[in-house]
Amino acid sequence: MAFAKLCSLDDVWEGEMESFEVDGHEVLVAVLDGGEVRAYQGICPHQDIPLVEGTFDGKRLVCRAHQWVFDAATGEGINPGNCRLAAYPVRVEDDTVLVDTTGVAPVHAVS
Ligand code: FES
Known about the structure:
By secondary structure, the chain is mainly beta. The protein is built from no helices and 10 strands. It has strands at 4-8, 17-22, 25-31, 37-41, 55-56, 60-62, 69-71, 77-79, 90-93, 96-99. The chain has a 4-stranded antiparallel beta sheet, with no helix packed on it. The protein has a 3-stranded antiparallel beta sheet with strand order 1-10-9, with no helix packed on it. β3 and β4 (37-41) form a beta hairpin. The chain starts with a strand and ends in a 12-residue tail after the last strand. FE2/S2 (inorganic) cluster (FES) is lined by residues 44, 46-47, 49, 63, 65-66, 68.
């Protein structure tokens, strides 16, 4: 596989997140404060809740269901700290956001 178009930068502004499906993967795109783009699994590792239904302040993602908090720059869990989001390689060409889903599997936490 290779990089595939996920969305346009016009679809997700700085400090916002949005969810898209590509190649059967639910992918959450978050544009950090400062404009860097990240792509993570779209479903919370805790239970089957779309992360896009939570909140994002440009730095941290918070799941709406049980308030798990993730660092949006790295995907690492902040609370709890023993989990993380699977990250997709992402790149931006012109105003197009591309991701590569090859070999990336969502993380499911055991709790
Ligand atoms: S489902 Fe996301 S914190 Fe529980």
